[in-house]
Fold Mavicyanin-like.
Amino acid sequence: MTRRQLGAAAAAALLLLGLAAGVQGTESSQAGGAVTVDPWKIPDHGSPYADRQAKVGDSVTFKWSGTHGVYSIPSGDCPEKFEDKAPLKEIAAPKDDGEGTVKFDQKGTRWYACPVDGHCDAGMKIKFTIS
Ligand SMILES: [Cu+2]
């Protein structure tokens, strides 16, 4: 294997681990489960956040190091400007090494993104389908 192939294999293994971790946190059929997005960061190039599933009553906690935050946004389109005003909602203002939690109180599709300049456009956004 070349160095490049090794890199690709490592990336694939990490992706599989990530998928397995995602499934682990969301398989529960009981309400009140906790899901984490950790680390919440700009994803590596070409590896956007996978869509996630959750149930009404579950909550998701985003955890990060560096400067990030969490906003609820209405779709996968990154807003031009992040402000805590409908249809956007601030879950956690940008800060260093923080976390933010959202509880899912209704079925539907939810999108979350980082409000720091350029982060959403760089792929720091995630979709949840709540059932
Ligand atoms: Cu960010």
